[in-house]
Amino acid sequence: MAGEKKTAPTLPKVPETLLKKRKQNAEARAARARALILQKKKLQDTKREIFKRAEKYVREYKRKEQDLIRLRRVARKHKNFYVPAQSNLAFVVRIRGINGVHPRVRKVLKLFRLRQINNGAFVRLNKATINMLRIAEPYIAWGYPNLKSVRELVYKRGFAKVDKQRIPLTDNALIEKALGKYGIICMEDLIHELFTVGPHFKQVSNFLWPFKLNNPNGGWRKKGNHFAEGGDFGNREEYINQLLRRMV
To answer: What pairing do the DSSP bridges indicate for beta strands 159-162 and 119-124?
Structure first.
């Protein structure tokens, strides 16, 4: 009829629970977006810090090398010899099995975490560890690794011990999570702490799984003889680096 009013169709009311759910979802999306932005910023800052540290370590190693060359030249100029300080770092490799091993030797190998043949580990040299090395000497080859050897071992054969599991070192976040409280956040920090035998050497060494190496290219010479007698076991000082090149 012409006189009747047309009533507007009423929209269905949205349940209050659905409105709350929509609001919660919107807040959660906003929180996730904020967290993602913060995480990206943190990653960029960490990457910048890692590059700065790497550059600082390179300068430090270069300065040490230049100092060594300078001291040798000064000694030669005065018709003398320069004897560098003995290294505080050793790398120990197990070369023999366990048959007929004395319990004391077995205990030393266990303390060094060398449970299998061709296992290797970094050791801080002091009076106690040198005596332990002497006890287990017929079963191990050891020496003083250089920076190149330390870097190759960590990058090529480095595995972390996380929750008693052997995890490959593929991400700096893994290192930062375990050792961040000691100021160690990347691979270069690990290498620097090991090579310089820093204050947190013990924590870094325990974080790394014992290195599993190959038999050396060309084989061993004679495991039953000392290195000084043309064999393989014992202290080979800087010549450990040549052995590690063949085993990594």
So the answer is: unpaired
Question: To which residue do tokens 């030249």 refer?
Answer: 73
User: Could you give the CA distance from residue 175 to residue 200 in angstroms, rounded to a whole number?
Assistant: 13
Please identify which residue in the block is written with the tokens 């290219």: 217
> Do 98 and 75 touch, CB atoms closer than 8 A?
no
Paired tokens of 22: 């929509």
Q: Are 135 and 141 in contact (CB under 8 A)?
A: no
140-189: per-residue pLDDT in tens? 999 999 999 999 999 999 999 988 899 999 888 899 899 989 989 889 99
223 vs 236: CA distance, rounded Å: 13
pLDDT tens readout for residues 33-77: 888 888 888 888 888 888 888 899 999 999 999 999 999 999 999
DSSP class of 44: H
Task: Give the distance from CA 87 to its chain's centroid.
Answer: 19
Predicted TM-score (pTM) of the model is 0.81
**Running DSSP on this structure, what letter comes out for residue 208?**
B
- Look up residue 110 and give its two tokens: 């266990």
